[in-house]
Specification:
The chain is an all-alpha fold. The chain has one domain. Helix content is 85%, strand content 0%. It starts with a helix and ends with a helix.
Length: 286
Amino acid sequence: MANSHRIEWIRTSAPTCRRSRLCSVFSALILAGLLQIMSGCAAARLTQFHNFAQAGTAYTKASQAVLDEAGTAAIEADSLIAQKGRDGLRTPEERRQYINENNQELRKRLALLGDIGRHGRLLQSYFETLAALADPKAPATLGTAAQGVFDSIGGLSPAIKNASLGSKGIEREIALQEAAFTVITSTLETDLTVQLQLEETDEVIEPFAVAKELPKSWSARREEILRARVAAASSRSAQEAAAKLRESFVALVENRLSEPSIAEIIAAINSMLNSLEAIKKATPTQ
């Protein structure tokens, strides 16, 4: 009976063991497949973060050039207006009061542009840290570094309270840049229009109307000013780039960021830089 029982146990156990081995092999194959899929997904996700970080860094660098030009345009437009209107101020006291008040307003504007610039540079540091974090071999300390950078960003935008390293906090900071550049580019466009109108009158229209001979540089100067006026009218590309950056960050968080979205940011940045190049060519520093 004992032997009979043992044989019966072996007979019924053997198929079970074979099934167990088959299940183990099958489970291993499934696990390997899942790991491969997860690895592929993780790689794709890291690529999303890396591409966004690169676009964000490019945006913040280009935006600094816009801020510099905004400050220069404000000073030069105000200086040209002051020179044209100086004769209307009859006494030294009137002239002194006029220039002091304008200088004070310009200092305030330059200080604000400086704050926005520092905010942008901190965002750039965050994006650069994000790019480093996208490296699978990134050290754990980078997460702490990113938090420190974000805390500094929040310090420059006190209206945003209780922000965290989470997606909503960074989205708001990018939105702050977008709102700032909405105002900056509008003011930049106005300042450049004033400056270029005066330059067009003095260097293009009046010489053509009254000069016996036109300067050899007249034709080239005319082209520069006309191209700059068109570029000034399209100077809102910085605002557009900030908007696309914010939209792409939301897409990144929701795991739907695509290469065309990154390409749109880069296109807006290139448009921004092309406009600045045309403007600087036509408005050399006095």
